[in-house]
Design a protein that fits this description.
Blueprint (H helix, E strand, L loop, with lengths): L8 H23 L6 E2 L5 E2 L1 H22 L5 H16 L2
Antiparallel strand pairs: 1-2
Pfam family, one: DUF2160
Keywords: Membrane, Transmembrane, Transmembrane helix
InterPro entries: DUF2160_TM (IPR018678)
Length: 92
């Protein structure tokens, strides 16, 4: 199925997860317009979409730093990324 792009199933699942998160944000925006802007600990006024972008960007940096410093396995950065995502949507 993904042989034309040399994709693996984990890569496909990652993109499915990202697009699912964007879909959830679209549904939330339709049901509750406005995005619930708030100012967080980083001093930024953000909406739900901004917080998703910040959490995805931070997650990529966490994984790249982990790979550069420690290598495999990737369970450590996964746990850190989940904590970062929760922090972004809770405080940022």
């Amino acid at each position: 199925m993904f042989s034309w792009m040399a994709w693996t199933w984990p890569t496909a699942l990652l993109f499915i997860g990202i697009f699912s998160a964007i879909g959830v944000l679209v549904v939330l925006e339709i049901r509750h317009p406005g995005g619930a802007m708030r100012k967080g600990v980083l001093g930024l006024t953000t909406t739900r979409g901004d917080r998703l972008f910040i959490s995805l960007l931070g997650t990529s940096y966490i994984f790249l730093a982990w790979l550069g410093l420690f290598g495999l396995p990737l369970w450590g950065p996964l746990a850190l990324s989940i904590c970062w995502g929760v922090f972004c949507f809770w405080k940022v």
